[in-house]
Amino acid sequence: METFIHKYRPKYFKDFYLNDDLNDLIQLLFAVNSINILLIGDSSSGKTCLLNIILREYYELGPNERFSNENILFVNNLKEQGIQYFRTEMKTFCQSQSTIKGKKKFVVIDDIDNINDQCQQVFRNYIDKYGNNIHFISSCTNAQKVIESLQSRLHLLKLSSINNENLKKIMHNIKENEKLQIDDESIDYLISITNNSIHQIVNYFEKIYILNQPVNIELCKKICSNIYMKDFEDYIIFIKSKNLKKGIECLQKIYNYGYSVIDILDYFFFFVKRTESLTEEEKYIIIPYLCKYITIFNNVHENKIELTLLTNNLINLL
């Protein structure tokens, strides 16, 4: 059975929600046969997906055709490969001609901001030397970690995260195709907890498909989060009512499910930012204190007794 991630991954430009200006620019680069691109965007912007679409469109491949290793060099795990890789394997690849008449070869580097400056310098030199034979496309999250001389040789395309309107179109398309029974409130909830990550949403939809039953907001909250958010809602009620015993028992129950203290704090931090059970003023009070606990657990120690101390402190704060 084909997974939802593979099934609904965009294969062509028409499937990818790209704004008109970027789409026109990419089409222009195709027309002049100069596809040297640096895609800049956060983790949910679809950089890697767009890289693959560019390759598929350029070589006019079918939706299930594989990329040719003879014409495309994917460079990954650059921290381990080091500069020697650029001076040997990549050089050999760049010196040979494409096996497809009228087409250039591609060097594809995902997360180029993870490469050190020396490696980027070698890569820049290869663009100058082999540009008549090779297209160079890459992606990064932090453009400040890409050297200026390399940026000047690439067309910089900034991708923003998909907006809620387009995200809902994708979700409703999957909902209709797979005949999923999920209400609009649950769809809005999924968008809020995934930070507009299509990858996470599609995974949750596959979970709902496997469940094979109608999903309302209560069930959605239970199955579409690692820690049941209702437990945190109850915890907030106990904190506000100054019920220390019940508050401690609530976090202890989550801990007994097998979650570590830092997991509980991370998810509680996520919950606090998005819940409507707390006012903005209450969030402003809780979040700095919660961050202090998370920092201590990450840098110093982790002990479940701290959950009790946190509960007591939050009761005193509120």
Return residue spans where pLDDT drops below 50 for at least 5 consecutive residues. none
The name CATH uses for the topology of the largest domain is Rossmann fold
- Total number of distinct structural domains: 3
Helix content: 55-70%
Strand order of the largest sheet: 2-3-4-1-5
What oligomeric state is this?
single chain
Specify the overall morphology.
elongated
CATH class membership of the largest domain: Alpha Beta
Helices and strands, in N-to-C order? HHEHEHHEHEHEHHHHHHHHH
Helix count, DSSP H or I runs of 4 or more residues: 16
CATH-scheme architecture of the largest domain:
3-Layer(aba) Sandwich
Protein name: AAA domain-containing protein
Keywords: ATP-binding, DNA replication, Nucleotide-binding
GO molecular function: ATP binding; DNA binding; DNA clamp loader activity
Pfam family, one: AAA_14
Brief sketch in words of this structure:
The chain is α/β, with parallel strands linked by helices. The protein has 16 helices and five strands.
Features:
alpha/beta; 318 residues; 3 domains; Rossmann fold; five-stranded parallel beta sheet; 57% helix
Notes on the protein architecture:
This protein is an alpha/beta fold and 318 residues long. The protein has 3 domains: 4-158, P-loop containing nucleotide triphosphate hydrolases (Rossmann fold, 3-Layer(aba) Sandwich); 164-223, Helicase, Ruva Protein, domain 3; 229-317, Zinc Finger, Delta Prime, domain 3 (Up-down Bundle). Helix content is 57%, strand content 8%. The chain contains 16 helices and 5 strands. The chain has helices at residues 4-7, 20-31, 47-58, 78-87, 89-95, 117-130, 148-151, 164-178, 184-194, 198-211, 217-223, 229-240, 244-256, 261-274, 280-299, 305-317, and strands at 37-40, 72-75, 105-109, 134-140, 155-158. It has a 5-stranded parallel sheet with strand order 2-3-4-1-5, with helices on both faces. Helix 9 packs parallel to helix 11 (217-223), helix 12 (229-240) runs antiparallel to helix 13 (244-256) and helix 14 (261-274) runs antiparallel to helix 15. It is elongated. 27% of the residues are buried. The mean pLDDT is 86.
